[in-house]
Model the fold of this input.
Amino acid sequence: MDVDLVGLAESLVAEAERANERRLLVLSGPHERGYDALESILDTLPVGITETTLVGPDDRLRCEQIPQVNAGDLLGTTRDVIAIDAHEELQPNALGKVVGAVDGGGLLVLLVPPLEEWPNRRDGFDASLAVPPFELDDVTGRFKRRLVETMRAHRGIAIVDLETDRVESDGLTDPAPRRANDTPTPPPDHRFPAAAYEACLTTDQVDAVAAFESLFERERAVVLEADRGRGKSSAAGLAAGAFAIAGEDVLVTAPSSRNASELFERARELCETLEGGAAEDKPAGDSLRIETAAGGSVRFLEPSAAIAALESADIVVVDEAAALPVATLESLLAANRVAFATTIHGYEGAGRGFSVRFRDRLAESDHAVTDCTLVEPIRYAAGDPVEVWAFRALLLDARPPVEPLVADAVPESVDYRRLEGDDLLADESLLREAFGLLVLAHYRTEPNDLARLLDAPNLEARALVHDGHVVSVALLAREGNLSAETRAMMYEGGRVRGNMLPDILTSQLRDEAAGEPAGLRVVRIATHHAARSRGLGSRLLERIGEEFTAGEGSDDSDATGGIDWLGTGFGATPGLLEFWRENGYRTVHVSTTRNDASGEYSALMLAPISDAGRALRDRHADWFVRRFAALSSDAIDDLEPDIARAVLRSVDADAGPPLTLTDHEWRVVAGAAYGPGLFDVDPGPFRDLIVRYFVDDPAAVDLTGREERLLVLRALQGRDAERVAERLEYHSSGQCMRALGGAFCPIVDHYGTDVALEVRTRFVDE
Ligand SMILES: CC(=O)SCCNC(=O)CCNC(=O)[C@H](O)C(C)(C)COP(=O)(O)OP(=O)(O)OC[C@H]1O[C@@H](n2cnc3c(N)ncnc32)[C@H](O)[C@@H]1OP(=O)(O)O
Ligand SMILES: Nc1ncnc2c1ncn2[C@@H]1O[C@H](COP(=O)(O)OP(=O)(O)OP(=O)(O)O)[C@@H](O)[C@H]1O
Done:
C-alpha cells in the first residue's frame, strides 16, 4: 500500500491527545483490505488490547468484539479505540452508542464499502425497513448518503479510499494545545464537605453537586440533565456520599444496578476520603450498600423495590431516570426529597418520557424543583469534532424551530406540505425542525428513526409550515394491503414487521381479514408547544384525510390513494382520546398490558375512508363494546377511570349489541336504584347498562364526573367498596354503595323498560 496509513493514524492520535479530542478514521473499500489496514494500525498504535473494541459481526482481532446489537454494552464505558465494521450493515443506533464511549485522545475507526457505492447497497439494517408488502428494493439509501456527506464536510474525520490507495481527507485540524483544566473550586457557601467539591472534574459538576444541597430542605426535587458522559452519575454519587456522611439514608435506584456503578464508585471514594476507609461496601443480594460512621447510608434497590421502600429513606436518587416508565417515576415522586438524573439526547434511544410527560407531573407536585444542566464533557474536550459530527449526522440535538418563528401560527396562516425524503435530505433545516418536533413530542425516538424517516418505503411525513417553519408534523405508516398468505401467517401466530394495527386486529383479535384493506396509521403527530390548542393538529389530520380520500379504495393502490382507513395507536390519556375523537377517529381496542416505556395502556382507533374500511371499523367497534365489561374486571381492571370513560365515549355510538336486559334483570337494576335491591347480587346487567350509557353519551342522563368514576371503579372494575369510597371521598363504603344505586336512577329513567319504571313507581311518589 502506498499511503502511509499507519503514519496517518499515528498523527490523528497524536493530535487527538494534544487536544483531548477524538478523531474518526474512515477506511472505505473492500472488506478484507479494511481489516488488513485496521490490523496494521492497531499493531502500531501504543494502545492496549483491553482498551480496544471491535463492533461487528466477526471476532477477527485480538481484542474485545461485540455485535452491533449489543453496542449498548459500551454505554457508560470508555475505550481508546473502537472500530465499527459496517460492511454487512450499519445500525444507526449502534453508531450513536459507540461514539460516546471513545476517550479523549482516542480513535474511532469505521470500516465501510467504497463511499460512492455504499448508499446504493442494501444492508441488513435496510432489510429491517422493508416491511410487508414492501420489498428490499423499495428501501432507499438517503441516510447513508447523509452520513457520507457529513463525514466529508466535518473536521477531524480522515477518509481513506483503500481501493485507489488515496487519502481523501487527512482529518487533521492542527488544534491549539489544550489549556490545562482549571481545578474547579467549591461554591462560597456550601453545606457539603469541601472534599465533595474537590472530587469534581469540571465546574459544571461542582454546580450539579451544589444543586443537591437543596435537598437538605423538605419537599424538594433536583433534576440533573446532561448529554452522555458529562459526569452526572458521578455528581449524584458525590452528593449521595455527602448526605450519607451527614447521617442521611440515601436510596438509589436506576433501571439496573449496572447503571448505578459510577454513582457508587464516587460515593464510596468520598466516604473513604472523609472517614479514612470506614465506609463499608456490603453487597447484599443484588444491592449495593455503603454505611458511614454517622449512621448514614447509600443503598441501591431496583425501581419496584425502591417504590416499596420510599418511606424508609431520607433521600431518593433516581439515575438514568429517562429510561424508566413514567408511571414508575410518578410513584418515586412520592418521596419527599428526591433527585432525578437523566440523559437528554438519544445516544441510547433512552426514553424521553421524562421530558415529554413527567416534567408536567413534576411541576404539578408539591416539590420545589432545582434544575441543573451539565454541558462540559468529561471524557473529552468540549467542541470535540467527532461528537459534533455525530450530533449532526444522527440529529441527536435536533430541535423544533425556536418559539418566535411559529408563535403566530394559526390554521389560516399555514401551508400543508408533503415531506418527501429527497426534500428532507436536501433541506437540513426542514429535516431538523420536523425530526426535532417528532423527537420532542415522543418519549422514544432514536437514530434508527431518522434512518426510517429517510429510507423506509412504508413511512411518509406531512407537515404544516408557517413562514417555511414546521409547526405541526405527522409521521404516517402504510399498513395493511397484505396478501392472503401473509394474513394467514399472522392469523396462525406469525409476526409481520410494521403493520401494527393489522397485526393486533389479526393476531390478538382473531380477524384474518383485518390485513386486507389498505390503511394509513398516524404513527406520531406533534404540534409545536408554542402553538398548541389552536386547531393546528386537527387541521393537519383534516388535510391528511383529504389527501388520502382522493383515491379512495384498495383497488387503486397508487402512490397517494388506495387507502381504506386512517388509524392510530398511542398511550391513552383522556386529552388525547378527546383529540382523536374530535377528529373522527373511533376506538376499537385497548391493549391488555401497559406500555413498558410510558406505563400507559394503548388505545387503537380507526377513521374509515372506504366501505371496506368502514366494515373493518364497525365490526371491531362492535366486538370491543361486547368485550369491554369483561375486560374491565380482568386485564384492564386498573385502567384509570377517566381513561375508561374517554375510551368508551370515543367508540362509535352505533357500535355494540342493543340492550337486552330481561324483565327480571330490569327489576334487579331498578330495585337497586330506587329500592332496597343490591348491585352485588347480579353485576352483569348493571355493567351492560354502564357500557351502553358511556358509548351513547346521552345528554338526557345527568351524571357527575364523580358518579361516572364510581360506575367505572365499583361496577365495571369490581373494586372493593371501601377502597373506592376512600378514593372518591365517600364517608363510608355504605355511602359509596348508596351513591352507586343513586347513579343508576337517571340511567333507569332513560333506558328502563315499562317493567323497570313500574319498580320505580313503587318507591317514588311521582
Ligand atoms: C399517535 C400519536 O402520536 S398520539 C400522541 C400525540 N402527540 C403528543 O402527545 C405530543 C404532544 N402534543 C401535541 O403535540 C399536541 O397537543 C397534539 C398533536 C396532541 C394536538 O395538537 P394541537 O395543535 O394542539 O391540536 P388542536 O388544537 O387541533 O386540538 C387540541 C385539543 O385536543 C385535545 N388535547 C390534545 N392533547 C391533549 C392533552 N395532552 N391533554 C388534554 N387535551 C388534549 C384538547 O381537547 C385540545 O383542545 P383544548 O386545548 O382547547 O382543550
Ligand atoms: N468527579 C469524578 N471523579 C472521577 N471520575 C469521574 C468524575 N466524574 C466523572 N468521572 C468519570 O467520567 C466518566 C463519565 O462520568 P459519569 O458516568 O458520571 O457521567 P454520566 O454523565 O452519567 O455519563 P454516562 O451517561 O456516559 O454514564 C466515567 O468514566 C466516570 O468514572
Observations:
- The pocket of acetyl coenzyme *A (ligand 1) is lined by residues 441, 472, 522, 524-527, 532-538, 568, 570, 573, 575-576, 578-579 (CB under 6 Å).
- The CA atoms of residues 453 and 549 lie 23 Å apart.
- The longest strand covers residues 469-480.
- The mean pLDDT is 92.
